[in-house]
Design a protein that fits this description.
7-stranded mixed beta sheet; alpha/beta; two-stranded antiparallel sheet; about 25% strand; Rossmann fold; CBS-domain
Length: about 270
């Protein structure tokens, strides 16, 4: 295999004088994690990456991972951007899983945690099944909008970071749902996020992971091509010390179809 086999051919770029916000929105729109910076003579003078944007005081992302999600949600509030994954629907793979067994359809007396809840579609679905739901996102504006768009909701919406969860959440939830939160993370933060997923699962509780899948055990990942599908090894890392109950790999109904994982883990 050579570089031309895996390189990106349709290259998006920004100029040195481009606004940081423009770079963020271009990266989200193209599902990229980095952009070359090209001057007026066509010379590459640098790169701007998701990692750079996580730590910029100019756009309010210092100390947050990934802070550019907050920037996107905040800009969407003013009509300056669209959150591409805010489609108003419950994740169909969560809904299918929940509907497969009677005990999943009845959340009475059970606590659920939704990781990276965005605008709350999955959280509200689980609340409708009777679960006492806590849903969190690293983006405060997403949480504010979720509360505003679900008046009277029984869901407890919280701004929190998967990498620094409240101590009293450890072992506190009967169901923890992670859908698509880890797959846009790149580098060391990805491993830390995977390792954090099992922590809130209570004894006899369940962790459900839904994500893009790859059959390649060691894929070559282009830093500019987000999201990055989870390998089977990474799926096992998400479960950590939990027991694997079921793992499914399947093509979804999107056009074109995407290969997915759906895995259920249990803390015995």
């Amino acid at each position: 295999m050579i570089v031309s086999d895996v390189m990106t051919r349709e290259v998006a770029s920004v100029k040195p004088e481009s606004a940081l916000k423009d770079a963020v929105f271009l990266m989200v729109d193209r599902k990229l994690s980095g952009l070359p910076v090209i001057d007026d003579d066509g010379h590459v003078v640098g790169m701007i990456t998701e990692g750079d944007l996580m730590r910029r005081s100019e756009i309010g992302t210092q100390g947050k991972e990934p802070g550019w999600f907050e920037l996107l949600y905040a800009e969407a509030e003013t009509g300056g951007a669209v959150v591409p994954w805010a489609d108003g629907d419950t994740n169909p793979h969560l809904a299918e899983w929940a509907g497969a067994r009677d005990e999943r359809r009845d959340g009475t007396g059970k606590r659920a945690l939704v990781v990276g809840c965005g605008l709350g579609y999955d959280a509200e679905f689980l609340a409708g099944l009777g679960y006492a739901v806590t849903a969190f996102d690293v983006a405060p504006t997403a949480i504010e909008r979720a509360v505003r768009e679900n008046p009277g909701s029984r869901v407890t919406y919280v701004t929190a970071d998967l990498l620094a969860l409240p101590a009293d959440w450890a072992g506190a939830f009967d169901l923890v749902v992670e859908a698509y939160t880890v797959q846009p993370l790149y580098g060391p933060v990805r491993g830390r996020a995977l390792a954090a997923l099992h922590v809130p699962v209570a004894p006899r509780g369940t962790l459900l992971v839904i994500a893009r899948a790859t059959t390649d055990p060691d894929p070559v990942r282009d830093p500019a091509m987000m999201p990055w599908a989870l390998t089977r090894r990474e799926l096992d890392e998400a479960g950590g010390p939990l027991r694997l109950v079921t793992v499914e790999q399947f093509f979804d109904d999107e056009d074109p179809p995407k290969l997915r994982w759906r895995a259920e883990f249990r803390r015995d």
